Amino acid sequence: MTISASHHLLDQAMLIKQGAEAKVYSLDSLLPQPTIYWPPSGPSKPSSTAQIQQTTAPKCSVILKYRFKKQYRHPALDLSLTRSRLAFEARALARCTRAGVVVPHVMWVDDRNGVIGMERIDGWSVREVLGGGAEGEMTVEEEDEEEIGEMEMERSKDQVDSINADETESEGWTALRSKGVTKEHLMTSIGRAIAKLHGTAIIHGDLTTSNMMVRFTPNGSEPYEIVLIDFGLSSTATLPEHYAVDLYVLERAFASTHPQSEGLYAGVLAAYAEGLGEKKWRPIQTKLKEVRLRGRKRDMTG
Amino acid sequence: METYRLSNFPPGYSTVHIALFRNVVNAPDIRKKLILASTMGGDDGERARQAVDFGFIEARLLVSRMHLLIGIMTTLQTCLQPSNPSISSSKDTTTPTPESTNATPVPNENARLSTRPITRTHNLHSEILLTLSSNNNISESLRRHGMSDTTDELVVVRIADADSSEEAVWKEMELLVDGQLVNLGELDSDELVDWPRVSKIFKLSELDRLPLTPLEIRDTKIATVINTVAIKHVT
Ligand SMILES: Nc1ncnc2c1ncn2[C@@H]1O[C@H](COP(=O)(O)OP(=O)(O)OP(=O)(O)O)[C@@H](O)[C@H]1O
Ligand SMILES: [Mg+2]
């Protein structure tokens, strides 16, 4: 049996993150450079002999996310789970784009082999921009490292981030600041992006600052935009509570990853409320208070 | 004509030649040849079918070069999975068509057979038209995205084996199509796109209401069409 086209692509790509559920790869181009053939007598080219030249393929750098087989799951269950998660991620991304929510475009879906390929966002995660990673977390990570093994790459990257955070400001923040962007503005953009997302009735399921990216928009009305990524845990919402939980996850992520920016988080909620509109925001606000209370109780008891 | 050598696909189907012709004047003739070829028997029929063994695509419904390329990649990826019993049983509507189209024999016949395309239409070329379509209605998809008598902007595709040469394929195309060969990149120019029809097919009019600039709306529409093509087989 030969290997699948997806596995060929993975072989050519660079592993950038190894998680428990998926490996993430980066590939500079989904397509090879084409050759161009101009016939000798073609009306478009006045030369007398046939020409074959290299040209540049359309820009198509991709991120390939590979949901590998899990040994601990029954193979049939594993396959159907992988396929449905992948399909959901692909459909959620497509639905977001259609609704004007900025997310990576889908370019390759091979559900049978667990590989999804999407537009690579060239920029930084909000986590990187804010210099994510708290000191306390770092020690825990160091202790856990050997046991976790599989997460090693990711963890060591986080450590680098957190060390940098203490000393210098991040590359992404320097770049944004040079365009006159403030942290408050960044929070507003994040809030608006989430409001847009929730406006489509999709909840993200894992809203963290690693799953939001910032990229420059040379032709846009704003100097940059927020791109939401990682829809592997997304689902469709039906109740205000679902949206509230999504927000609560982000709130906690901010508190633990960016304690120095926690005060800024209020700006996210304000922009979210404004983006969604008073009528939709009210019931979510009520639920969010409940969810916070529950979370705090859980913290105290366990 | 652009040629992509896609080494990640089986060698029997790893070369894709694509040409964009503008101001095509003989679409009805080409279609007659296609119909004739499909009805002829014997060696003559075989030769006639080989001569028209291309994918003919209505270029006015392609919103960008990427749209076409993703359509082709998706077709190859979904139709050329390495042999896997669960696939053939899960798709009982599929009938593997003998791929009699490539003149050059593939060295390792076994390897080729193990990855014989599984298509729902006649062959890989027509399958591209189904992939490009917004729905799974075969006859409608072929009619809409294939060539019609009035087609004047035409994309011609040949999926061939790893050894297929640009020059040989060009000679075959040249015999068939009376039009002006242009850079494939012209698919990215708005001038070619029949936006009202594309909007209707892919239900894009709702996107006009997004609070975005006209340019952003256009890009969002293009992305939406490409997404639709890329994910159709899992929707
Ligand atoms: N489209 C993209 N463009 C650029 N970088 C990306 C893209 N998708 C993912 N990444 C990078 O890879 C990382 C992991 O991707 P993603 O979050 O989708 O995978 P994951 O395994 O589900 O991660 P997690 O551990 O958060 O669940 C991201 O944090 C980001 O740095
Ligand atoms: Mg993630």
| Low-pLDDT residue intervals, each spanning 5 or more residues of chain B | 85-113
**Main sheet record of chain A:** 5 strands, antiparallel
Number of domains of chain A: 2
**Roughly what fraction of the amino acids of chain B lie in strands?**
5-15%
Total DSSP helices of chain B: 10
- Structural category of chain B is alpha+beta
Q: What is the straight-line distance between the termini of chain B?
A: 33 Å
CATH architecture of the largest domain in chain A: Orthogonal Bundle
The string of secondary-structure elements of chain B, in order, is EEHHEHHHHHEHEHH
How many domains is the backbone of chain B divided into? Answer: 1
Q: End-to-end distance of chain A, in Å?
A: 51 Å
Mean pLDDT of chain B: 88
Helical residue percent band of chain A: 40-55%
Average pLDDT score of chain A: 85
The Cα radius of gyration of chain A reads: 22 Å
Oligomer status = heterodimer
Number of helices of chain A: 10
Which structural class should the secondary elements of chain A be placed in?
alpha+beta
Most extensive chain-chain interface: A-B, 49 and 56 residues
Q: What value does the Rg of chain B take, in angstroms?
A: 18 Å
Strand element count of chain A: 12
Descriptive notes:
The complex is a heterodimer of chains A (302) and B (235). Chain A is of the alpha+beta class. Chain A has two domains: 5-30 and 59-119, Phosphorylase Kinase, domain 1 (2-Layer Sandwich), CATH 3.30.200.20; 124-131 and 171-300, Transferase(Phosphotransferase) domain 1 (Transferase(Phosphotransferase), domain 1, Orthogonal Bundle). Helix content of chain A is 48%, strand content 16%. Chain A is built from ten helices and twelve strands. In chain A, strands 1-2-5-7-6 form a five-stranded antiparallel sheet, sandwiched between helices. In chain A, strands 8-10-11 form a three-stranded antiparallel sheet. A two-stranded antiparallel ribbon of chain A has the order 3-4. In chain A, strand 10 (212-216) and strand 11 (224-228) form a beta hairpin. In chain A, helix 8 crosses helix 10. Chain B has a single domain (2-234), classed as PF0523-like. In chain B, strands 1, 2, 3, 4 and 5 form a five-stranded antiparallel sheet that branches. In chain B, helix 3 packs parallel to helix 10 (214-231) and helix 6 crosses helix 7. Residues 85-113 of chain B have low confidence and may be disordered. Chain B has helices at 27-39, 42-51, 65-79, 85-90, 109-114, 124-132, 138-145, 166-176, 195-201, 214-231; strands at 2-5, 15-22, 55-58, 154-160, 180-182. In chain B, 44% of the residues lie in helices and 11% in strands. Chain B contains ten helices and five strands. By secondary structure, chain B is α+β, with helices and mostly antiparallel strands. Classes of the chains: A alpha+beta (302), B alpha+beta (235). At the A-B interface, helix 1, strand 3, helix 2 and strand 6 of A face strand 1, helix 3, helix 8, strand 5 and helix 10 of B. Strand 3 of chain A pairs antiparallel with strand 1 (2-5) of chain B, so a sheet runs across the interface. Residues 210-211, 230 of chain A line the site of magnesium ion. The site of adenosine-5'-triphosphate has 20 residues of chain A, from strand 1, strand 5 and strand 7.
